[in-house]
Amino acid sequence: MSTLQSENFTFSQIIKSKAQVCAIEGLSGCAKTEVYLQRIHALYEEGIPYSQMLNIAGSRYKIKSNTIRFKQKWSEEEKYPSFITLYSFCYQLIKKYNAQHDIETWKAYKDLGSIVMRLVKKHFNLDLSFEECECIMSKIALSKTSMMSEKEIQAIRIPNIDVDFAYLFKQYEKEKERLKIYDFEDLLVHAFQLLSTTSLASLCSNIQYIHVDDAQELPFLAHLILHRLVNNEKQLHLFYDEHQQLSLRHAADLQPLQALESTYASVERFELKTNYRNAPAILSLAESFYFHKDMEETQEIEKDVCFYKGFQTETELYAYAEEKAKASQGKCLFLARNKEMLLPLMDLFVKNEINFQCPSIKYFFKYSFITDMMHFFDLLTDPRNLLAFEAISSKLNIKCSEKTYQSIAEQLSQNDDFDVYQAIMNANVKAEIKNGIRKYIENFRMIQNASSLAMFQFVLQKLEYRRFLIQENISLSHPAMVAFQALCERYTDPKDVTTCLRTLASATYPDTARIILDSIDTCEIEECSEVYVMDMQQSLFPLTEEDTERKRLYLAMMKAQDHLEFLFAKRVGNTRLRPSSFLLELFKKPEKENVAPQNVERQAPALPRRGRKIMHESLGEGTILKLDNHLATIRFANHNERTLNLTFCLNNGLAKLL
């Protein structure tokens, strides 16, 4: 039996429902969590101990948030309920059973993406991006929580990633067994097996009432576990919003929520529609965008409540964000589509001693192109840094053995005035290595004292790193690249850029500050007085499928209680950025075409002959001894011979012919 209540009911009807299953659906801001907490308290008021309730929350953050809200609302209580994630509950069952049977319990980890990346590199010689790793992890989760057969697993294909998924899946399972660890899906699988073969009385006999918040995030196997727990004797309340389901990492499945009537004898449904969170203008804008409602049928945008602000540069954008953070009185949330875009803002807040909370940024250094850029900067600012040269030599198509590096190191230790490049020319190394360094040698020396942005462009163009980025399908408007360029724009000295990044990576941030920085995907904070969406550019919105991206932006908007702003910059460094089509849709602005400027190359002058005298800016007068295309071996004073890119020197005013 199923009944649906919509609008014409009170919260007390949900709280006191005696149906075996009560499903409560509602959009963001419709008080689902409030009713969830009231239901728990009402049962306690009826004399039912908290020990008979299983209160499932979606995450550790939700556990903390629900506990604080409960204590604030019923502060006079002597006892309080406990909240737990379904994964932790399953882990408790496994540990309890294993203790009873003297079985070793393995450790459990939420994220084993690093293992997948290592296995893909080992077996398929591929470097996965974070997005690609997430895609594979979601398929692994789906395989387990959907209880797929071996044949079904063999049929899985990963779009645009050339791996044998079935083989990778087997290697992944073997690696976990070798390390004696579980992933979170293992917890569900083992708990379900226990509940299928073991008496409930020995595992969780006390539980009579089950409450699940954020039920839209449950995978199929989690619903089977709940069904085992309910077992026709207990009551189950499910609170969910299908429009809030974003993460596919743990294979969330809405279908069981839609088919409860085929699983349980008695189901009562309630639909919450009244919004208690957002200012009317914010709610109107969000619903018109996501549900394609006509704004005229809802409400016109209030310009002081929600609007967008454009800037010429990212520097101006971040300065504006800092100003807003200082002026805010309540909770203030800065959201980015990707966490990388928060780095320049974090740096600005640290410099100006603004307390804030944010996620770790150590992931930033897992992007190989970011670590490459930092090593390039390290080498170009300190030409004796052999470790930095070793880190980026492959990007210059220079392959050195361990013996070669030892020879170069000996030259550096014996000659204090040698840089890495001259050490290579003087070391006993293969001719191909010397030839490889010759075409860059003067470029390296020329750029040593350049600004950060000039050095960034130099690496891309003169060292041909842009070609590598294109091969890896990495755009200059990639969020990590945009963040790096923004820091280059802020710090003229390249050393300050790398120092800033390493400082931010090692810092810790309090989780109690009222200023919050987070990405849309990972932010679990439900509401803030002010919300600023930081990076409304086309390369990020939409980044994947339009429907999914539309949902992301909708959820970001629904976190704003009183004030909502969208921020966009036209360029960062020398990279032009386009406004998001979503931004143009929200505020009905036609998009203008961007015309790329034409680059004009200068033609190189003819090279002089051997024996010609030259005057070098820093090395003084010299005589050309040998010419090899654009490279010249020149003898300077005290018989000091140096190999230079003569064309480069002449073109850039570093040398002139005598």
Automatic annotation (TrEMBL):
It catalyses: ATP + H2O = ADP + phosphate + H(+); Couples ATP hydrolysis with the unwinding of duplex DNA by translocating in the 3'-5' direction. SUPFAM superfamilies: P-loop containing nucleoside triphosphate hydrolases. Transmembrane segments: none annotated. InterPro entries: DExx_box_DNA_helicase_dom_sf, DNA_helicase_UvrD-like_C, DNA_helicase_UvrD/REP, P-loop_NTPase, UvrD-like_ATP-bd. Pfam families: UvrD-helicase, UvrD_C. This is DNA 3'-5' helicase. It comes from Amedibacterium intestinale. ATP binds at G26, L27, S28, G29, C30, A31, K32, T33. The keyword Secreted does not apply. Belongs to the helicase family. UvrD subfamily. It is an enzyme of class 5 (isomerase). Residues 5-279 form the UvrD-like helicase ATP-binding domain. The keyword Isomerase applies. GO terms for molecular function: 3'-5' DNA helicase activity; ATP binding; DNA binding; hydrolase activity. One of its GO terms (biological process) is recombinational repair. The gene is pcrA_1. Its EC number is 5.6.2.4. Keywords: ATP-binding, DNA-binding, Helicase, Hydrolase, Isomerase, Nucleotide-binding. Gene3D superfamilies: 1.10.10.160, P-loop containing nucleotide triphosphate hydrolases (3.40.50.300), PCRA, domain 4 (1.10.486.10).
